[in-house]
Amino acid sequence: MKVPYSWLREYCDPGVEPGQLAERLAMTGTEVERVGTVGPPSADGFVVGKVLSVEPHPNADRLRVCTVDTGDGERTIVCGAPNVAASQTVPVALPGATLPGSHKIGEAKLRGVRSAGMICSATELGVGESPEGILVLDDDSGAPYAAIDHKKRTGSLTPGTPLNEVLPIVEAVLELEVTPNRVDCFGVYGVAREVHAISAAPLAGEPWAEDAVAEGDGEVSDYASVAVEVPYLCPRFTARVFTDVTVGPSPAWLQARLAAAGQRAINNVVDITNYVMLLTAQPLHAFDLDKVPDGALTVRTAANGEKMTTLDDVERRLDAETVLVCDRDGPSGIAGIMGGQVSEVSEQTTRLLLEAANWNGTNILRSSRLLSLRSEASSRFEKQLHPELCMRAQRIASRLMVELCGAKLVPGTIDVAAEIPAPRRLTLRGQRVEGLLGMAITQADQVAYLERLGFGVEVSGEDLEVTVPPDRHGDISREVDLIEEVGRIHGLDEHLPSTLPSVADRVGGLSREQRLRRRAEDAMRDFGFDEVVGWSFTDPGEPGRLRIAADDPRANGVVLSNPLSEDQSVMRTTVLGSLLDIAQRNLARDVDAVALFESGRVYLPAAMTKPRESMSDMQNDDLDVLAADFPGERPAPDREPHRIGCLAVGPLTARSWRGGGEPADFFAVKGVLEALAGQLGTAITCEPGEQPFLHPGRSATISVGGIAAGWIGELHPLVCRSWDIDTAVGYEVDLAAFVAAATAGEETYEDVTTFPAVYQDLAVVLSTDLPAAELRQAVLRSGGELLHAANVFDLYEGEQVGEGRKSLALRLEFRAADRTLTDDEVSEQRAVIEAALEKIGGSLRA
To answer: What's the pTM value of the predicted model, to 2 decimals?
Structure first.
């Protein structure tokens, strides 16, 4: 909503600069996106001029030499406009003035004739469009409609008068971001009332207080009739008739005002409807009455597939819920959205039917979206206007039609209305105001604030009986809404005390899950991975590129009802897609390698959840948020599980795991995952497992406490090809599973012992089918308290160990916190370990 500042000040002048007012409006709930300027950078050098004579240019057929009185004497100005003539009053830019676009006017010779200035058009001044040539000022050029009632313009049309005193050529414009509930602020007078409320500056009288004098012949029923077949979709339809209408250009002030508000001037009739809409928030529509057979209009819903051509010259196909305004020959306009060509006002129009109607907001919003047709009218109607606004707009528009079009208003108004909502009355309790806001506001101040906002207020002891005005009917429905109005006008930023929330026996802090999640994210950053935040929305074709089968629930994500675009129309079921998107974008910009991780939610379809009974063996409540799309047990009541995933393409960084420029592989990322689990005190196991997007034989299923919790592996070559990536490796795990099994709590430490460790290497021959992890666990279980660590550091397969056998070398670290271990102590514990290895089919390598 663009609000020209001069227009606003005609109704309420706060006495401050636009920027200051914008800050105050923002602090009281009316967001101002920006404060712009329309017109030249400065009004200096622009004056009113009088054309004294016009002569042909001696050296150019299309130029004329004009003598112009600019108040400081006569000057010669060469002009190329076809409509320039003697005795005209015109806007003149003197040498030194700067036009919009930073074009500076100076003295110059044009085909041998010196020109000292420029006679300007509306387009050159930035106050409208003037295809016919220069702007000609007349007695009404600088008389805004508001000024007719409230104040006279300061300037006159005397030569030399600063142009800005006659016409607002340098106009500050407030661009408001109006919230849908504040339909009153979609009109300039509503914004003026808001300024009045927050500044206490005087507010001019309501512009709809007076009506036009009806001087036409007959009664309105002699000219027109209206039938409403769908009153639930058209709560009110009002119409007035005008005769002796002269259609032509609007006066300069009206064109300038519309241009500043972002509207294009068309003709005086259409400009009046737009002007009144911007002033009151109530859209109107004008019909050429001679193009409406018998003047009879009917409001009905369209037949399914019915067509009509709108004012933008587009034929549109309608459905059975679209509301139409029709004459006996067919549709004449789409209700609340756009009129039709069949009854369009033109220069030949002499009789008008002016409509100001009220429509069902939900229906207008639906039809506007269905037709992909959004207009200034629909953007207001879809917020659900009050039926009372119709007659407000009719009164102002009628006066303007008489003033600017020379029209005669026919007595009477067609008013077809369903039951108009009764004024809403609410009780505002004084104690409730202080109790909810946490600060005392006197009853006198409460009354003053509400009355400034247009509410009717009656004092009843300590309470107030409040009547809600029509333009706030849909916004204010409860006592708490009134309290909000009182609080924001009083000034929450200035008067509301800063206090902490009052809670009993509680202190702030992070939950266990939040602490562990942050620890996991910190760990991934420490490992050299860059954190990314991907979109929760994704492309419906992403599962196909990940080779996920159509019958897999992950291929059928939750579809958005109102997506931003087709590429973001489905909720993601895995974070892998966003990791691949970001990796592709970086690699395409000459990044040699990427190591990314994301911590975020995925959104699973209902088919992937199971009843609560499958979780009966889980002890930790954190598993309530565990969702599974992996083989094995599926405890998944939550459809929005939190996942942590990583992706590495190319070598990992030097501060990470492999270094040396060698591309990351399965084991490098497995080391990252094991280190992450170690940070959380969680034991994980990796068992062979497949996913459609992983390389067969180079992937595994991650389990925590015997429950499948994720996957790890190298990506399938076809998946990599879909994202223009050579090779990639990564993992994705459910955070809830790690949290549930985590033994880490608060940060812990252990003393660094001064006693040396005893290191021994152990080479074990065993079956190739036995995982190294199982061997390591057997060693750790049998090692007792003295075994501090056991790590596999070598693998050998060959003739010396036999077919189907392998040799794994482990380094054992024995340590005691209170003494130096003896060889006998270590040998005794090593014997226990060797005995345990025999039970799993292992033997020491000679």
So the answer is: 0.65
